[in-house]
Amino acid sequence: MKKMSELVKKYYYCRICKKNHSIKFPVNFAENQKRYPFVYFSIHKYTGNSDENYDKKGSDIITTLYIDKNLTIRDVDVAWEDSSTNIISEYDTQKLVGFLIDHINELQDAYDSLMGKYTKLVEGLEEKDKRQKI
Question: In this structure, are 76 and 92 located in the same domain?
Fold first, then answer.
């Protein structure tokens, strides 16, 4: 019996790069899909060496994979990622998430510092109020 954490490695051909690329799926990835083949989107970097697209080296290519119930890739569509698409690369997503997490941590530190000062101020005022009542 296969564990759910096992991965299946599949290959597809990119007509832009003119190369095979690999992708890994969990063994149970195709389970419970509404229809087959189902669509899966992936992004990879252009790795071709042709003079025709030399200026696009490292650019993102959006890959649409059509996957059947047995995790066989039935068809592949590829297109250059451009500014009109709503899909961003994994690298850009990681950069954005990293920036946001750093900013959230800075805000949390500032909040903790202000809360500490506020607590000391309130405690000081309460102590002063107690002394005045005596």
Answer: no
Task: Give the DSSP letter string of 83-131.
Answer: TTSS---HHHHHHHHHHHHHHHHHHHHHHHHHHHHHHHHHHHHHHHHHH
Tens digits of per-residue pLDDT, 87-102? 555 556 666 777 788 8
Residue 61 and residue 16 in contact, taking contact as beta carbons nearer than 8 Å: yes
In the chain, which residues have pLDDT < 70? Answer: 1-5, 49-55, 82-95, 134
Tokens of 123: 């405690």
- Shared domain for 95 and 126, answered yes or no, is yes
63 and 111 share one domain: no
CB burial class (10 A; 0-12, 13-18, 19+) of residue 28? middle
Pairing between strand 19-26 and 7-14?
antiparallel
Contacts of residue 58, Cβ cutoff 8 Å, sequence gap at least 6:
45, 46
Q: Which domain holds residue 51?
A: 7-85
Helix (H) or strand (E) holding 132: helix 90-133
